[in-house]
């Protein structure tokens, strides 16, 4: 199969789904790590095609959703500082902080701009030299190279009124923490294909080697996802645990060398706080000293330090991200929390499990 349309072909999808029946004699809980997988599963109704013994659960693969409450509050606080323009991707606009969101802050007079790429924020800073433009760096390894390029571009051009509030996160440490916690005994993992185009496949081999959990790197079309599930179930049946690359048309086993070189040049590892998982060592990145003038955490250190502790919300998004709570089991789901009035990021993000369940599941 060489063409994208093959991975959307209903006949091939049904044929693959039928093959799962012979591999699913024992109960299996498979986590689709990536939020894009979660949305695709819901959108295409894939759960209805699975054997009754197979259950899919969502994981911590929605970058908007795992952003910690205190980090949201800190970014919002920057917008109240005179002369600051906040630049963010659109999917962060309605994520609620303790008291507000970017959308409500803009309604109250904060200068908040939606950008579609970090380089747009650099251009904005170049066009408004009397303002400080702060870009919110949120996302996993897939979006980190674009942020790194923006920092390099600002450095080369001397755009010193541009900075990044860096909350990028890396996926492998989070999966290690999730599996080591043992709260949910998963039978297999569907690993994110787009992240793997940057970091490769080998970086995930600790999962079968240390936790004996079968994995499949897979794409986001219906057939992609079912082939990933088939790989996990076949490994279980054969008593194996490995990382199978079921997305060979896009993912190569080794890491992308150019992307890795770029990330190493601009960022270095640091601990990060994840919603639902807490502080995970080495799971975030910070801007290296070479590019310190473009680090908003340094530039606005006093403002960030003065932000009050995050207020606890009734939203149970953290449990959804760990796979231990289905969206429909949250008492707020459809009862005060919906896309028009989201109480947490899992209902806001287009990759959020709650948003997917609300839109596509009964």
Automatic annotation (TrEMBL):
One GO BP annotation of this record: protein maturation
InterPro entries given in the database record: Hyd_form_HypD, HypD_1, HypD_2_sf
Gene Ontology MF, one: carbon monoxide binding
Cited Pfam families: HypD
Gene3D superfamilies from the UniProt entry: 6.10.20.100, HypD, alpha/beta domain 2
Keyword field: Iron, Metal-binding
Family label: Belongs to the HypD family.
NCBIfam families xrefs: hypD
PANTHER family: HYDROGENASE MATURATION FACTOR HYPD, HYDROGENASE PROTEIN ASSEMBLY PROTEIN HYPD
Protein name in the entry: Hydrogenase formation protein HypD
Gene: hypD
